[in-house]
Fold:
Amino acid sequence: MNQRGEKLSPKRQDGNSGPRTHLPSESSASLLRELVAHLRQNRSQLRQEWARRIREAQLLTAMTEEEVFAEATSVYDNYVEALETGTFEALQAYARNLSERIIPRGVETHEVVGIVLLLRDVLARSLFTKYQEDVEKLNRILDVYEPAANRIANTVAVGFVEERERIIREQQAAIRELSTPVLQVRERLLILPIIGLIDPQRARQLTEQLLRGIRSNRARVVVIDITGVAALDSAVANHLVQTVEASRLLGATVIVTGLSPEIAQTLVTIGVDLGKMNTVGDLQGGIEEAERLLGYKVVPFADAPPAA
Amino acid sequence: MEVPILKQHEFLIATVQAALSDADLTLLRDALVERVGKFRSRGVIVDVTALDVMDSFASRTLRDLAHMIRLRGAETVIVGIQPEVAFAMVQLGLNLEGVATALDLEEGLAFLDRRARKSIGQRSRET
Structure:
């Protein structure tokens, strides 16, 4: 049951193309066998034809000719195997493995989809040539071939895109981990340097870390430095205002430093209410202001009053 | 649940120990406003460390309380708002405008002390 179910499933997925439902499944299984035998027989010739077409279409330019040929060979074998068994797990695993290897080389999505579609075309064309005498049979062979081939193309493309998304997610997580240090520079004084782009998720995380930091360090003044932020939009600016207010509810004063002229202009243009925010030009000024609020006074040794 | 109000020298300390109903909050407000006059207190501390929710009625009542006590000649400081509560409050637009806040009881007392010194300083300068 298992085998038949798997064999039929690609058909059901693609059920809207072509009149093949009248075919008894027995004969479609034998057609598939014939098809696979044909592809095995002409393996080296079709593979070469495919590699030629890949070069012609200028796909996979990041890889050398030998590499393309080696990959083409294993893709071809996996392809035929998937056709034969009707199971896609092996192909899926292979697609993922392939993506892992070629994404760092700069291979693009359209190239991967392109080569799989090319293989489909090459194989279809060889079927045309083989069965050109017998149009009826050609039709039935194509009925078996097309849905399976489409599903293979789908599987490979999806595998590639999923791998890519996985990498992107991992990198995002890594950036988030690195990006929000809350540092104590003096008793009761925290600084929070923000660098890079702030999206709503990161803004939320920043706020949470800051509020937790205020509590655990018993901070009374916080300096948020946004020198490293290139641009703010209104959502993030409002979030910043909310962070300032939430910190105040915990009893901490917030000083925002390092607003670039562009950001200042943006904030004024979009009309964010900054009345409640302490802003100081640069981080140094911010720390000095914070020290003043905390009652510290930094003096050079020479001017210091002699210790009592 | 009624909130106990302790007198500590010239300050009053009200420590909220469980979630409060609207009626409890109103009672607390009225009791504090009355006792500030009775004990001639200079400052009031409301400790809300135990609260894990602060709705609009609660924050409005606390704000009113602070303003009323200021009119009665004393300072109010709200202490112990939890980080999550603080963030939820500002998202709802409840930012206790014009009300002093501090991290915890100790900080609140320090704040009121500073305030008291300052106003004494002002008075001595004036005379």
